[in-house]
Amino acid sequence: MQTPTVLIVGAGAQGVITGYHLSLAGANVTFLVREGRRLALQSAQKLYCYDDASLKTFAGYGVVTSLAELVGREFDYALVTLDGPSCRSVEGTRLLTGIGDLFRAHQTIIIAGGVGVHDHFIKTTRLPEARILEGTLGCLAYQTDRVTLPLHPPTDPAELIKASFAYHHFSNRAGFMLAARPRKEAERFAALHNQSGVSKGIVMSPTLFEIMSTAFFPMTAMCDLAGWPDARTMSANSSLMYLGSAAMREVIGLPKNGWLGSLASPFLRKATLAMLLRKMEGDSLPLDFHAFNRFHHGGKVREQDIQAMKHSIASGAAAGRKMTRLRELVDKYEKHCAVVG
To answer: What percent of the chain has pLDDT above 90?
Structure first.
């Protein structure tokens, strides 16, 4: 059988960890990165896996720094790992336009790895909707030189310090999650990812993917406002728990989420949110869930999270929803961010 070929745009945590699992699955992986990242990728990448407290080696991939280097090459998939604001920037839009032009005559499936960028990808690449997938990393991953997380047993600090990236799967072993739009292509990519033998590709309905992608942000905003405490301390903050859970209900219950949102929304109360926080905290161990989110959602992708919540407000307003609690939360959060930076 022909070896699957995957282009990954960006070599941050999402790109490298996904690329590693795809390489285990037998895919030929090439990274498209800025010139400044080429040197770091010339050596094999060392990845610390919290799942078994061991160091992994990722090598044998290709690296290019311009679309011009890809002319004449064909790929089965192109995963673009840029976050929402980066995709919508002038430079990001120009890159997506170039990707569309490069692969227009091929059958490459483009995977949008940012949050809420599916329609932007269709518009900028000018490729058929049937060739645009929406997906995101399903495990927790980070660059070890950007943050030092608290250590919990059985983490091996001697091995962790050798790694450029670290990652941890939840109990379902999800490594990459995809919206089933189009279903056939999503299932095809998931099947390829599953061949890694250690990480799963998960396909879900577009509605469930939307809910899971957007309802999470009011919770992280709530936790950021509280200073990223552990689940027990956060649960005791009645006012923020009320505001966060109410905002999440408004997002889940948006008309675009159909019957699934209408069914799920009423159950998201303070007690349910407290249980959810405790579960995520426990499932993340030995990786520290709250310290990870402080780094990731409290800094790295904070702008994307705020944009996503504002998009939910706009979506609700268009459907005649006031989105009172979500508006209140975003207002508090933006004022908080302006003070703490």
So the answer is: 96
Alpha helices, DSSP H, located in the chain = 13-24, 35-41, 84-88, 90-103, 118-125, 157-160, 183-194, 206-214, 216-225, 231-235, 238-252, 258-264, 270-284, 289-295, 302-318, 324-340
Band of pLDDT at residue 1, cut at 50, 70 and 90: low
Between the two ends of the chain, the Cα-to-Cα distance in Å is 52
Written as six digits, the tokens of 199 are: 């990480």
Q: Which CATH class is domain 5-204?
A: alpha beta
Exposure class string for 89-120: b at 16+ Cβ within 10 A, else e: eeebeebbebbbebbeeeebbbbbbbbbbbeb
The residue behind tokens 């091929």 is 106
The answer to whether 121 and 110 are in contact (CB under 8 A) is yes
Q: Locate 22 and state its tokens.
A: 């795809």
User: Considering only CA atoms, which of 190, 167, 191, 168 is closest in space to residue 178?
Assistant: 190
> Is the confidence at residue 139, as pLDDT, over 70?
yes
How many CA atoms lie within 13 Å of 221's alpha carbon, on the beta-carbon side?
33
The candidate with the shortest Cα–Cα distance to 182, out of 136, 130, 135, is: 130
Predicted model pTM: 0.95
Instruction: Give the H/E segment covering residue 80.
Output: strand 77-80
- Token couple for 65: 């720094």
Confidence of residue 146 (pLDDT cuts 50, 70, 90): very high
Nearest Cα neighbor of 154 from 50, 61, 298, 264 is: 50
What's the one-letter identity of residue 202?
Answer: I
